[in-house]
Fold Amiloride-sensitive sodium channel.
Amino acid sequence: MTLIPPECHTAVRTKTAKSVEFVVRCETPWRNFQMRLGEGVDYYDIQRCEECKIECNSIVYHAYNSYGHGFSNEALTRLNKKNRSWSIPHMKSNFLTVNVFFRDMSYIEYGQIQGTSLTETLSDIGGNMGMFLGMSVITVIEIVMFCFKIGWITISKKRRDYMYQKQAREKEHEEQLEKTVEEFKFLHDHKYGSDTKNDGAGVQTLTSSASFENDAKLKDDQTEVEVDHQTRPGPTIAPAKPLSATEEEKEKPQSD
């Protein structure tokens, strides 16, 4: 008996139960092909492929067979009424019933779908760059600008000359700035060093002059005190006045 792949369940035309005339639109897991059967030879002429592609869609149907008791009494009666030559014992011995149906209402379907879309891919790349590299849109723009400038310098001679002159001017400016800072530092140190020496001499002069002034002031104070004692008049005692006659008469009884 000729075996037919499960995928070739359509577009099959048979002459007899043991031969197949042709099969079209036969889709197998290997590739699409047409199956030919030679006359009197029971085999398939399947095309060989080195790199077999995976099918885009695949539906798997499982086939089962089971055996039952046979026809029911009602079915035998109906068949006997259609043809009186079919007796019930004859039908039980020579008739066979084949029932084709879906055993399960569910089926398994294999299909290829896109794992990640373009949006998800860009989102993953941006998330990883932002988390691990700290990059953003501004960083990407800066990188593009840097590459553009490098390419511009490589191609344009005028741009290279301008960059060389700019670098020379910046270097000269830095040297002048360093020289100016050193001069200011030297002047600052020289100025504050001389001021410190002058301040020390001035402190000594002020101290000596202050002590001299204090000594002179003390001497002047002592001289003024002595002069004051010499020139200030002492207490004077006035002479007693002579008493008059009336005053003598008044004082007599008091003395008595």
Remarks:
- The radius of gyration is 68 Å.
- The longest strand covers residues 22-27.
